[in-house]
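User: Here's a chain of 524 residues. Predict its fold as tokens.
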Amino acid sequence: MRLRTAAAALAATMAMAMPAGAKTFTWSFQGDAQALDPYVLNETFTLGLLGNVYEGLIRRGPDLQIQPALAESWEIVEPNRWRFHLRKGVVFHNGNSFNADDVVFSADRVRAEGSDLTTRIAKSVKVEKVDDHTVDFVTEGPNPILHSEWATWYIMDKEWSEANNAVAPTSLAEGTDNFAAFNTNGTGPFKVVKRETDIETVLEPHDGWWDTPKHNLTRVVFKPIGSDATRVAALLSGEIDMAYPVPVQDIKRVDGNDGTSVLIGPELRTIFLGLDIARDELLYSSVKGANPFKDVRVRQAFYHAINIDAIRKKVMRRLSDPSALMISPKLFPHAPGIERLAHDPEKAKSLLADAGYADGFEVGMNCPNNRYVNDEQICIAISSMLAKVGIKVNLVAEPKALFFKKILGPNYDTSFFLLGWTPGSFDSWNVLYNLLNCREETGRGKFNVGGYCNKDVDALTDKIKVSTDEAERNAMIAQAYEIAASEVGTIPLHQQGLAWGKNDAVELAQRADNQFMLYYVVKN
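Assistant: Prediction complete.
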């Protein structure tokens, strides 16, 4: 087989000479970006696509290390004050100059009502313009990871936004949109020249980009193709140059085809199950007047019912790593000895009986069918496993646009769901704060759809945020994970693997966060 690792692909990309002729590059993903507004959805694909158009103060390289971007440098001038020195001579796609006013505006906009990225900057952080190319961020206390999520906090043009009535962010939850939902004006290496939602998005290089292009492309065409079979067929026929994800069952076929190959690599995303622990009565259940998920024995029963090894072998074709934590061990090497609850259907039945549900019950489950690797198939498998212990799952699998609007709306309209998460900071604080902290209006627990809440975990999260002692910090992270695991706040499943299919004439960089950056693409 000719499977290639991400590291090998990157080495080849960097080593080869730039071809003389520029090319059109066509690629496909299983779904489209939610919209073109960079604050519409905190979702990897949407942010990744827009990361070719917009830029942040920092960016991540192919190895995911932080690099300067719209900020040339930064420093901590006081314990609570970060100073960012902005890059001079940068222009937006429409020719407007980039300056400190755009940073201050973007900080306000990303934290405004309707934004799905409010956790990028805490509401308590003061953003102060020092001069046209210097901005200070003043925090309540020391924050050593302040900028770690800013690679996907993209800076918008204040003048353009105001001129086009796009000051307010597009809101997925409220179903509102504006000019920024369908048009872009970034500083990045590519600009959008055509947009047909769910059909085709065309990009061309931004000739005024401040950095030196590593690509040789003159035109990029993105075509979302939801059908796995159709997407693979388009790749094999040469209709498209790159497609991802390649379904695990088609990897050998793509790799064995003359002219195509598959890039295999680890992904940092954790796929997990969430349960509505917050409501007194589930929205979608045969149990009335009570919420069975409030009983930890029921949550443990669901966990014991899941055969993660069968999911890995039969559904994921071994392209996954079962996980007991809500974060990849690659991002927390000092993970404690937390182990998954064993697959034990009899134990699950016993726990359900002890909780008063010896005959089981019905519950609705929400799952995307075009977001994660084999997402719907995973949910079908889990439904079957739960049926064996007396739980009837009424599965609703739908495209991610409908799925996210439903479960991430203001009412968290779900009882049981599958979700995936890659921490934008590649740090455990992100996981704890967003997924395992109590929900608050401040933005804490914004993506804690199930409503798990333990104030001890919250208190540890606050200490982790400001700690500069690595050993002490890791010990607190481990303690927080242990508490959440013991209470089954969520049910981790696995870290899914990456499988990108491409034409052999194309070289690119595969990143472990599954973001596809066009400025590393070279087409012979």
